[in-house]
Each structure stands twice: as structure tokens, then as C-alpha cells.
Design brief:
Length: 90
């Protein structure tokens, strides 16, 4: 697998990585990785990572669902003042 392109987005305690990769057969795909920083029991930084693989044949359906979801949130989510951090997973 070869890395062809990478984009990093920092968002509070989370960082998102968008990486375009190539298979041995030169077929491109995208990985989206969420990395969340927290402090472990020993006081050291711990990074929890979650990765999603997206293949070319799924791009249109994925983008459509993502856009619909974002549009729904923009139209329906209550306005919360001074809240810049996404909700906790806990």
C-alpha cells in the first residue's frame, strides 16, 4: 500500500486524518482516521484511534449520506452557546 495524499484536520481533542492510498493493483481508496487524545492512568498521553476504509465504488453513497446528515443537523440541531467541543463518547 502506498500513501498518495494526506490531509489532517484538528478539532479540539480530536484529529482527523484523510489518507488516499493505493493497492498493489494501483486501485485508490480513502482511509479516515479519528485520533482522540486523553490522559492515561499513569498521566501520559494516550491516543485512541478509529479508522474507516472507503472504496471508490462507495464514494457517492457515502458522500450523499454524509451531506444529508450534515444538512439535517444544520437545520434541526438546537443552538447551544459557547459549545465548541463535540459531545463525549462516554
Amino acid at each position: 500500500m502506498e500513501d498518495l495524499f494526506s490531509k489532517q484536520v484538528r478539532a479540539g481533542k480530536r484529529t482527523y486524518f484523510f489518507d488516499v492510498k493505493s493497492t498493489k493493483a494501483n486501485d485508490y481508496y480513502l482511509t479516515v482516521t479519528e485520533s482522540k487524545k486523553s490522559i492515561g492512568a499513569d498521566g501520559n498521553a494516550v491516543y485512541e484511534k478509529h479508522k474507516v476504509f472507503l472504496y471508490k465504488e462507495d464514494f457517492e453513497k457515502f458522500i450523499e449520506a454524509l451531506n444529508e446528515s450534515v444538512d439535517y443537523i444544520r437545520k434541526n440541531a438546537p443552538v447551544i452557546e459557547n459549545n465548541t467541543e463535540p459531545p463525549s463518547d462516554n
